[in-house]
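SAMPLE LOG
Freezer: B-3
Tube label: C17
Construct: single chain, 654 aa
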Amino acid sequence: MAYYRKCLEAVTEQLGRFKPEKDSPGQFLEAARTSLQTLSPQKQAFVWEVLSGCIEYRKLLTVVVDAFYMREGRLCLRADYNLFQVICYLATFQLEELGFRLFCSIVRSQPADKMRKVSQSRFSSDPRAKFLGFFFNPLNLCSWIKDEWSLIYETAHVKDWTDPLLRWQPEVQELISQLEGQSTSQPPLSKAKVTEPKSFNLTVPRPRAIPVPEPVPVVAKATPAPQSTYQPPKEPKVLEMTKRYNRRRAEELLLRANLEEMRCAVPRARGEAPTQGSRKLQLRFLPRIHKTPKLTFYRPNKVPVKLNTATVLREGALYQRQVEKELQRVDKLVDGAGDFTEFLEWQKRMRAKDQEEQRAADVCRRLRGKLSHEEAALARQQLLRENRHRATRKREEMAELMQQCAERRLQEEKAQKELVEQVAEGQKNIKVAQMKLLKGRRQTVQEVAEESRARLQRSAAEAKEEQRRRCELISQLRALESQPKCQGKLVDLTQIPGHGLEGEMSIVELRERLALLKEAQQREEEERRDQIIRGKRAKSRELQNVLEQISLCRTAMGRSAALRWEEKKAAAPGAPSQDERVQELQRRIEERVAERRRQEAELSVPALRAPRPKPRAQLKAQHWLELEQSRERRLRAMQRSGSACGSARRLQAA
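STRUCTURE (predicted):
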């Protein structure tokens, strides 16, 4: 029992040191092998084999142990996490090799008291029995454990691991009953003797002297915050009063309009005054007015745009250049220059022809996109077929590699056992050399300690002498500072210093000259301000004239644009002609679609999860719809650009 207990303790200790996110398995196993050299060769081989297996199948073991803590082991100690992993590994991969009797002795080697959580009430069952019952439960093995392990390894390997566990089910149930009976037969824990503390016999310290209080510094009084900080602003109140007044006024106007509309509801003779009954009848036929909680006022959509000075001048210069060009053109026509009407008509015909070619090119480009889409689908199907063949080859190669790895592992274990025997023989000679080296090191440590002690004594004496000298200097400086000094000097502001410099003057004269200079600067600033105001007024008049000219030009351009729009609506472009390129592309697309559907029918294989083609079809339809909309938008933009060029030429001709 003690033999296997020490082995499991060594394995759990090494597993607790392993950090999968930081350590690599190979380096960690090499470091663990060096740390396990103190054990015997048999223990070392067993511990290293179990440790390497736990690290290799760490994902499988983590699935089972985490589920145990989540479902049935909530009251078990987290310190036994690595121990449960070791038991799970031995039961899954080493039970056939070890034998059930040896497996039982390994499980019983762990004391049940250390695995229990100490509290006011003890467990009724052993944690080892709980874990074995949870792991060997056929319902768990055949359902979620098999599914979770199949996500990590192949289903065939998982089946080879779970089937032996189901065969050992009766023997494991006997072991669980024995562990539960052993836990119930153990006597309760005896109460430990309570330690009674005693107070230390220490000397009473002297009371501390009360320090002299330091003078409280006088702080300047802060300026208080203004009263407006704590008062709400007046603007919300004014807005609220305005809203209430507008609401009341709107309700009165609405009531008056309803009365005017319904006044003819009660007929009476001409010139007859309305009686009390007629008033009641009239009020009876009036519609009931429902007060709305809030009136909504809508702002106009066309808000005037405020132009800055640069924009106004730029637009005015543009219209001025256009007017000058038009005047030059009129002068040339008067002098006998030719007209560009025939050229403009030819240009219009060429532009219409270019637009038709552009539409045909757009249709061809869209069809080429569809063709490339179908070819890509065919390429994906071909790639899927190649991937399936490649996957089968990979599985065969992986099986061969696993067999080679197992053979190599057996050879390495044999070589390691031989190396362990050689190292054990070499350690006997190492101990004698270590004792000699330890004696020499102790002697050198004593010599170094004596030298450092003498050096510390010398440095302490020097520091004490330096402190005494500094105290003497501080006392002398304080004595010099405490001596009284005569401070104070009479100053005559009207007296000239008399340093012999050119332009010397008294402080009073300097102040008077500075005052005169300040007055002169203020006069200059006022003159400059008047000049700036006059310049701004002249500039505003010029801008007003430019704005009037711009408004006239905009009105004329708006009328010409309306005429062009009417002409454009009258001559709408026809549909793009179907040329040979478009027909050829449509024929190729139909061939690709037929070929793709034939290959899909050949490659149809029942899968675990059926694909959902509906969202893909919707995305495909949406993609082609967006392409059609973009083509229409591009066509409209080309038409607008062509109309804008024609309007500019007509403006020049006007």
